[in-house]
Amino acid sequence: MAIRTVRTIGDPVLLKKCKEVKEMNGRTRELIEDMIETMYEHDGVGLAAPQVGVLKRIVVIDVGEGPIVFINPVILETSGSQCGQEGCLSVPGKAGNVTRPNYVKVKALNEEMEEFELEGEELLARAICHECDHLDGKLYVDMVEGELMDVVLEEEEA
Ligand code: GNR
Ligand code: NI
User: Fold this and answer.
1) Which of 3, 46, 95, 127 would suit a FRET pair with 84, their CA atoms being 20 to 30 Å apart?
2) Does a structural domain hold residue 59?
3) Counted domains in the chain
4) Does any ligand 1 atom lie closer than 6 A to the CB of residue 134?
């Protein structure tokens, strides 16, 4: 396992559409493990493959209940709405308010390439939308209502 470099805004890889994963192999398995480790290293609630420079439709999310891997995720249903603060590891030191659905139903493949469906509300719904947007080259900064704010980052622990 390894921590990978998170690409930041200005890097053209963040604006590209990612390709579907057709088969699981050692390389992709390693990518997923590294994405999970990289997400935890940066205290993120999610990470999408393009953020580590790989244009594949793979997302990892952990909103506090363990990591979930989504390969080729497709949002099937949304309802309601929530407006709240969002940040992105690819836009360090910034945050802004974004309106998202409050409920999302998503289908995806797991690491065994088996299809599953998952329903999420609140932060999980928000994270699913945020990560799926990454796979289509979209960043939350283009959806911010009001100003993109500066956030003072806490001193990192040694
Ligand atoms: O760590 C993250 N926090 C977050 C907060 C609100 C909505 C979405 C997110 S995802 C973000 C990590 C990230 O950049 N994922 O792409
Ligand atoms: Ni992000």
Assistant:
1) 3
2) yes
3) 1
4) yes
CATH number for position 61: 3.90.45.10
Q: 129 C-alpha vs ligand 2 centroid, how far in Å?
A: 10
Q: pLDDT tens across 53-63, in order?
A: 999 999 999 99
Whether 3 is in a domain gets the answer: no
Q: What is the pLDDT of residues 13-52, one digit of tens each?
A: 999 999 999 999 999 999 999 999 999 999 999 999 999 9
Q: Are 127 and 84 in contact (CB under 8 A)?
A: no
